[in-house]
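thread: overnight batch results

M.L. [08:02]
morning all. the overnight job finished for the chain we discussed friday. pasting input first so we're all looking at the same thing
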Amino acid sequence: MEQERPAPRGTVVALGTRPADPAPPPAPNHPPRNEAMPLDLGWVNAVRVNLSAVERRAATLPGRRTVKKDAQAAWLLKAVTCIDLTTLSGDDTAGRVRRLCGKARQPIRADLLEALGMADRRIVTGAVCVYHRFVATAVDALEGTGIPVAAVSTGFPAGLIPHDLKLKEIEASVADGAAEIDIVITREHVLSANWQALYDEVRDFRAAAGPAHVKAILATGELRTLRNIARASLVAMMAGADFIKTSTGKEKTNATIPVSLAMLRMIREYHDRTGIRVGYKPAGGISAAKDVLLYQMLMKEELGRPWLEPDLFRIGASSLLSDIERQLEHHVTGRYSAFHRHALA
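M.L. [08:03]
and the structure it wrote out:
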């Protein structure tokens, strides 16, 4: 990755490490939507990223921020409520999707919740994320739970189908009941610095989604530089994205702490200038409980307590939930169980 010029803004404000309240999420209760703004190329072109400063900040995070015992269990329960429980495999079936939805409804075993003093709390995942083919199946399986269904769309994962077909796919998923649409941008627009084309594309996706919230997947592992990632994040937010998301999970490099830091700083700057809170979703490669704790700490420090809730923070994952449940069982019993005992589907 190329060295990039330092940004004018270089201070980092630590926001503390008070354990997150493990109260269940409202279902679903989003903040005011990002209604978009005109494309401001002056703002976009002024974005710079200090690569060495980002790397230093990312390297120090694990050693400075740790939680243990009851506090860690609370943070992990909060993480469960922010997971977009995902299956995006070529061999998906309706049966697998229904089993995944069953896990979304009760992600943590009842005996563990009782031992943790949480038996009376509603702990569910933030959403279930599937291909369009299985949206109606997931909506039916989750009826009455308030758990939204997210559909990956716009020619996921490459996003190289014709634009009109992308819009039709979004509309079809919304018609089938998807409350959230995870769209993929055209990477070429970023790599060629065609910000107007990227803006217009995301605006069209936002319009096609109607009431459904839009998560813009940047495929950060294919954008080459942190500066490209930061600028693409900003343009997607200007165009009305409700969330910005790192990856499809299909790239060679998916969510990382440095990439997340660059994206979170743009969310913070967008909020400072517009007053609008845009959500964040790291996806791909987050499979261990210790990893999700780092992302939670980063969210808390960079954006503050509101961004620890599922209306502004989601984690795209499949196997992560299994490891969280194993860690909670270890907290309760002092023993680790076999991983296969926590299979999702």
